[in-house]
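Before a colleague's protein record goes any further, I have to sign it off. Alongside the sequence sits a line of tokens, each denoting a local backbone shape. I want your independent view on whether this chain really folds as the tokens say. Where you disagree with what is written, explain briefly why. This is what I was given:
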Amino acid sequence: MKLTGMWQTRAIAISFAVAAALRGGSDVRAVAAVVDRYRIPIFAEVVVEKDIVFGKAVNASGKEEVLHLDVYTPEGDTDRRRSAILFIHGGGFRPGQDKRQKYIVMMATEFARRGYVAVSPDYRVRANRDDDRIGTLRDAVEDCRGALAWMREHAAEQGIDRDRIAVGGGSAGGMIATSLVGLENAATADRKTPGLFALVNLWGSPAADMRLCTLDAHYPPSIIIHGTADTTVPFERSEQFAADLEAAGVERVLVPIPNAPHTPSKEMPEIVERAAVFVHDHLPAAASD
């Protein structure tokens, strides 16, 4: 999966322009005003605030867990109403992976370099997820909705525009994100408040019986990126998810990565680019002050 033609030429030209401006001592904000903020990297460094407590929950063993999240912000940015994205890690709903999963850190960092506030939470997992797959999913979705609520509650402090938040996730995180955006947007529709504006699903399309939400007109535009040789989460699930979104009238893009396995690390730069362009192109207009 490579950028070609217009997008490749445009990305290269803008990257050179940004680099030249920064070398010349131009203010980062001024550079951002010239190029497409949120589409390409415009910040050289990212600040990560780690292990912020956002909630507590009782796990499947009956013990209380303290839940943490990390916040990635572009260093030197003075904009205080930034679009944000919640990135949810994978790991099969089992212990062993957390919010610092390698490709999640990469996605959060690269989105922050583009001007977003990126947030990565932990959530409850189980050693024996198959004992209660729906219960495992419900716990994880509930915790990630708690992280989303934290983002809205701390929007002013973190410089987040609470009306412009997207969600992404990989593998199990994609399955969580699939249900989370549907449940959240149904709730915000009832409250007549802005919902989540985009979904980035990375090789994590769930089977239909592992969705906790309805696919309807409130579901956000979605990009689904998946390797065709995935033996962990079959590519056919993403084809079915895309077909179901189409039947529900939801805008969607399915990006197959030919012959790629689960978590195609070699393709991550291109995956970041495709995801960033999609999310940028679906950003709602910022509310006026």
About this structure: The chain has one domain: 43-281.
